[in-house]
Write a structure and sequence with these properties.
Chain lengths: 229, 229
DNA sequence: TGTCAACTGTTGATATAACAAAATCCAAGG
DNA sequence: CCTTGGATTTTGTTATATCAACAGTTGACA
């Protein structure tokens, strides 16, 4: 039953596989906020023992993607609206900063690549394809941030996104799911990049985050209301 | 040999004790950058088994305070100068933002409390007491950030500080240890808070971080030079 | 019928054993 | 003196057993 292990190579061990899969699923909004992650259940899912699962979960707790309750239960956080608002402000600072840097330091090639996702987003929205919208939106944002050439900043932003991945779960099930219309903001960012105008890029991203978060806050209120019923 | 465990209460379990102690020691610069953390050694130090130590270390890895090498060895990161510079810029954004918020939202009582640490810092510097300087400096900064009333932001900033805690290890052993003279910047922040001038507070903190990081970069260069010898 | 205590299953915490990859060491050979 | 090859030790990985806290259930008794 003991799995072959590879150390030293880039080959992922079991703990890392579990970690990666959980990240993926969290990002894709497959876990509801509040969902508990039972060690033995997750272990069974992967056909693994507790140890690698503990490793993965503890790492996620360190990243604040999961939280450990006072009873030591690990679960997907249900942020308070105030917390979502706080994270929105932090994201506006950090991602705005990254966009401004990108406008200064990005290459024309990168910008062309970014435009593809910008168009893909608009196209997907017109087609009403929610999944593609999500994907294109994410690619658009992260390609902008990558153009800032600040790897650690990119990591931090990824962490913030992962953190509200589960909230997209809500969004995707929300009655009022508004299919956010970020086209204008994305377009503004795109123009700012081409014109190498850092402040305009910053402001475009800030607006995008500002508006998009409103939907999340609404969905969250809806969840709370439902959980009282 | 099995330790009594308390679940549900706020009482820390073994893994958490290990985690807290490591945080403390890292923050105090007791670990050199590049130091390896051997599972069994740490476990022996705490008279514990591997499991709780794995828990603590994995969490620290998640927080990017420690890093896992390709051979799965966990160690204190030795950042490249470029990384230190990147983190400096991120800190300037984030901590500058927090200071600006503090100027808007902090209470007069908080400001009075902050002034104590500001004075303590100046006093410790004149007395040449390096340890007290460090302490007063940290208290000063974090009290400012706490006044912004953004708990998650505070967490993130703590993470960034923890991350270059080990670099203070270098500083404390550096031949050119410059005993940074942050008095002016601290004073500027202090004035900005009292006058409720967010932009001045932001700029004061930004300057402080900017200058203070230079010392770290110098010490880092010194380390690299020494490690080549 | 309502209440409470004992029982039982669940779940996280810890310790430990077995294993494999890396690292280290040491001796033989060039 | 340096290299090289294998033996030995170190060290991370995984699985597993045991224990204590917790939750839910059942059943006895008032």
């Amino acid at each position: 039953m003991s799995e072959r292990v590879a150390r030293g190579t880039g080959e992922p061990h079991l703990a890392e596989k579990v970690y990666n899969k959980l990240c993926q699923d969290l990002q894709d909004g497959l876990y509801a906020p509040g969902a508990k992650l039972i060690l033995r259940d997750v272990a069974a899912e992967f056909g693994a023992s507790l140890t690698p699962v503990r490793d993965a979960l503890n790492r996620l707790v360190g990243e604040r993607v999961l939280e450990m309750g006072s009873n030591r239960t690990i679960s997907v956080p249900i942020p308070l609206a105030a917390e979502v608002r706080e994270i929105r402000r932090i994201r506006m600072e950090l991602e705005g900063f990254a966009a401004a840097e990108a406008a200064s330091k990005g290459s024309a090639g990168e910008f062309a690549d970014i435009r593809v996702d910008c168009d893909a987003y608009a196209h997907a929205r017109r087609a009403g394809d929610a999944r593609r919208m999500l994907e294109a939106n994410r690619d658009f944002h992260f390609k902008v941030y990558a153009a800032a050439r600040m790897p650690f900043l990119l990591e931090m932003i990824k962490g913030l996104w992962l953190r509200n991945g589960p909230l997209q779960y809500l969004l995707s099930r929300s009655a009022t799911a508004p299919l956010e219309r970020s086209d204008d903001h994305h377009g503004a960012v795109m123009r700012a990049l081409d014109e190498r105008d850092p402040e305009a890029a910053r402001q475009g991203i800030r607006n995008d985050i500002d508006y998009a978060t409103n939907d999340i806050i609404l969905a969250l209120a809806e969840l709370r209301e439902k959980s009282l019923a």
